[in-house]
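Handout, section 3.2

Students often ask what a structure token actually looks like in practice. Rather than define it abstractly, here is a full record for LysR family transcriptional regulator. The first block is the sequence as you would receive it.
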Amino acid sequence: MPRKLPPLTALPAFDAAARHLSFTNAAAELNLTHGAISRAIRNIEERLGIGLFERGTRSVSLTPAGAAYAAEIGAALDRISAATIVATAPRSAGVLTVSTSDGFAGRWLVPRLHRFHRAHRDIDVRISTSGVLADFVRDGIDIAIRYGGGEYEGVVSEFLSEVEVFPVCSPELLQGEHPLREPSDLKHHTLIHDGFPINWALWLQRAGVEGIDPNSGVRFDSATYATDAAVHGEGVLLGRSALVSADLAAGRLVRPFDLKFKATSSYYVVYLASALRQRKVRAFRDWLLEEAAADREVTG
């Protein structure tokens, strides 16, 4: 059965306009005219039969349907970009094998990896996802990112990112019959769990909310799937800052409440002391630290 697709050449214009909420800025990013951006978006709207933007005199905003569509299209374009970079990268400087958890790989590392490839096209990155600390020699691991206390015997560990925990949800849950405006409104929504030690019972207690079963809702073993469920409006997730930062920045998720906790553990870059003699390991380690530092500047 053939795929039902929009005008594919118009999608970058829609994605840029949705991110900037400006046809002018989208045109500047793509080196197109304002009219070309407008025509591309109108072409998509006519094909879909829905409005994607509310157009004002000097501004534009996404409709609810447009916001949901933008989240999916942006994620799809990111995956296409990453796949293209991997497919076309030169094969000369060797393979770098990175070990990390499924959640960190899917929600933090992969959405940024195109920036590393752009700067280091001669390094091929291979990602191995596991919940346990790898044996670097036996498993052929060059560098790892781990969540914990940072004390790992026989290896070097460097602080990468602390973790704050707070509820996140799709923007659509801020509207509708039971909009999320205060913590007690959670009684009308599904709680999403991802197995993290700081759970809904603790958050609801700190928020002073009673009458909600903290164990109710839907449970995932994978933070990636749990976050995807929240992005798609399936409920409210107690998200980890490092794993939801990209979705928050893109508008796929929002924070309905201010209350947050700092986790006792953090993310660390872990490697053998001798590994930094290799340019590929040193380059990736430096890039990870730069990305994490940029995150801290954005989040304050």
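Discussion prompt for tutorial groups: Strands lie at 53-55, 60-62, 95-100, 124-129, 143-148, 156-168, 191-193, 218-219, 236-240, 261-271. How would you have guessed this from the sequence alone?
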